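ok so I'm stuck.
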Amino acid sequence: MAINFVFLFFIHKISCQIFRIYFKVLFSSFKTFIIKPSPAPATNTIKIISAISRAVIFYSR
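replied:
not stuck anymore, here's the structure
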């Protein structure tokens, strides 16, 4: 029982960190896109954001 709780606690901490990184990447890409809207960095950040969101969905199951 205690091991289960510790495991869930660590998964919760990991998912919180992933969400924090996700929002930092999202915000920085938004700022970059507003400063210079070129398509190449936008596609890279979209790939990064989709990879992070897939990881969040995978770990939150």
